[in-house]
Amino acid sequence: MRPSRPAVLIVLFGVFALATWALLSPLYSSLPTVPWTAIPTVLLLAVGEVYSGWMTKARIERKPGTRPVEPLAVARLAALAKASAHAGAVFAGVFAGFALYTADLLEQGVPRRDFLIAGGSAIACAALVGAALYLEHCCKVPKDTEEGR
Prior knowledge:
Number of strands: 0
Strand content: under 5%
Largest sheet: none
Shape: elongated
């Protein structure tokens, strides 16, 4: 498995932001309001991935007080990180497209609420992408040094 490439994540973000923005013109009035629960949920996922990355890095480096980590567990965490990075980029794009569409309607109450929630959700998804990239980085096996051999 190869590490996530930032260019792919940026393209995913852009494509889904533009697609969402384009689809909302005929559909916005028939959609329910954006749920606020995405923000804390995604932020909790990001915190969990940062913590997992921090602990995994310590275990891979065999810091005092930690147990060695199973290689299969690291592979699973790396797969989770890659999936989270891609999903976070897609959903950040969807929420950003929603925020872009409602930015022109801020004088109305419901679109203003949707804009704030969609913007906050896009930021939370961007934080998830950052946390996933950090977890992916922490799953790399360090290069052997002369002392470690």
